[in-house]
Automatic annotation (TrEMBL):
Its cofactor is Mg(2+). Pathway: Pyrimidine metabolism; UMP biosynthesis via de novo pathway; UMP from orotate: step 1/2. Keywords: Glycosyltransferase, Magnesium, Pyrimidine biosynthesis, Transferase. The gene is pyrE. It holds the Pfam family Pribosyltran. The lineage of its organism: Bacteria, Pseudomonadati, Bacteroidota, Flavobacteriia, Flavobacteriales. Gene3D superfamilies: 3.40.50.2020. Orotate binds at S130. Residues 58-155 form the Phosphoribosyltransferase domain. Belongs to the purine/pyrimidine phosphoribosyltransferase family. PyrE subfamily. Catalyzes the transfer of a ribosyl phosphate group from 5-phosphoribose 1-diphosphate to orotate, leading to the formation of orotidine monophosphate (OMP). SUPFAM superfamilies: PRTase-like (SSF53271). This is Orotate phosphoribosyltransferase. Its EC number is 2.4.2.10. It catalyses: orotidine 5'-phosphate + diphosphate = orotate + 5-phospho-alpha-D-ribose 1-diphosphate.
Amino acid sequence: MIFNKETAEKTAELLLQINAIKLNPRNPFTWASGWKSPIYCDNRLILSFPAIRNYVRDEFSKNIEKQFGKPDVIAGVATGAIGIGMLVAESLGLPFVYVRPEAKKHGRLNQVEGFLQKGQNVVVVEDLISTGNSSLLAVEALRAAGANIKGMAAIFTYGFDVANQNFKNANIDLLTLSNYQNLLNLAVAKKYITEEEEQTLREWNVSPSTWNV
């Protein structure tokens, strides 16, 4: 679910402008999972554009407090959401922690890095949601550390059915700045893609694991 339509459209346009989202139905990308995809999203590029990263920071800060209430801590999911998560925490005047994909094999064996007390309310910041599996592993680690998860806020989601089900099963509210539907609508309106390419992109979204196989 998006925070609001105006933010979703603006965020989608900014991501397209800086090529954080690339649409290429004629020459698909290959994801790490092996899936073929007509879209590639790298939201880490946002950090290189001060005006855009400030926009994302401000929209997150405003909407997180409005939708979830002001938490005790902001948590970023490593590595893509560490930078933007820190900016959001700074904007809200809150402590920040980040969550590794797995616990370290040495030292204190931490998976959650930073100071977190049991019972603290946490909002998790993520850069991108595909299936949701890695994001929800971070939630599990925070819960194991005693955190009370108020919800997750992400920059963009592909809106896969499997992700929606995974978040429902985990009882986590996910709100995003933008999503796949708003992206496609804007991409057609602004002539980033043709209507024929839009159809290809919609077909992929229905069954990404089997598309173009």
